[in-house]
Amino acid sequence: xxxxxxxxxxxxxxxxxxxxxxxxxxxxxxxxxxxxxxxxxxxxxxxxxxxxxxxxxxxxxxxxxxxxxxxxxxxxxxxxxxxxxxxxxxxxxxxxxxxxxxxxxxxxxxxxxxxxxxxxxxxxxxxxxxxxxxxxxxxxxxxxxxxxxxxxxxxxxxxxxxxxxxxxxxxxxxxxxxxxxxxxxxxxxxxxxxxxxxxxxxxxxxxxxxxxxxxxxxxxxxxxxxxxxxxxxxxxxxxxxxxxxxxxxxxxxxxxxxxxxxxxxxxxxxxx
Length: 272
Fold this sequence. Notes:
Helix content is 44%, strand content 14%. By secondary structure, the protein is an alpha/beta fold. The protein has helices at 2-5, 21-32, 48-57, 71-85, 115-143, 154-157, 164-188, 208-211, 220-227, 241-248; strands spanning 12-16, 36-41, 61-65, 90-93, 146-151, 192-199, 259-262. Helix 4 (71-85) packs parallel to helix 5 (115-143) and helix 5 runs parallel beside helix 7 (164-188). Helix 5 (115-143) links the parallel strand 4 and strand 5. The protein has a seven-stranded parallel sheet with strand order 3-2-1-4-5-6-7, with helices on both faces. The chain has a single domain (2-200, 235-260), classed as Rossmann fold, CATH 3.40.50. The protein starts with a helix and ends in a 10-residue tail after the last strand. The protein contains ten helices and seven strands.
């Protein structure tokens, strides 16, 4: 019975930001479960290594050049995906990120914040989830079922120093996740579920220089984070897999509107 609940074989999942460290880890985890993967990214060549790995393991993974802020481009990608796979069951909105001008450094104040960069961060993280949802929801509605997973952050629930724009953007994802869960269930039925993963601290290309020095040792910020994480370390990308598979499967068919921390206890620790 448990195996049946978690069975994902034959499903199709689209992952925006699919060539990033976390996107790649999620694609690999689902592909191992028999899910056909569509990697959506502005630079799909970054996924070449994963595509080679997929061919070696018999996984179904294809990369598509996309732009989550361009509805016309996303509709073109949708047409390609449906032509290749015939359907879409899962959408993972993993595209996002931060910009230096949207942060407030230790020697700065909010007066130094770049409004232009902050606008870009808000658009990428928020509208970069809304637009793909609008585009890929249409075939889901036709199929009367769909699973949407957004990517939140610890900075949404406990605003972190410096990353003001990013924290605000991810807080909007939490609200959007809950709102959309209610909206879709009320208008299209219980076949539609919307949830979010809230990763704790994982080393990615964007935060590596903030958390580690060139020799691999922790920066002061990195040390503070680890000290406030009960597990005493950063997360490994593959540690998203279990929760992701659960959310994509019938094992969570009565779960919607949730934001699930995957953080080694960071959100539970008061610091005392």
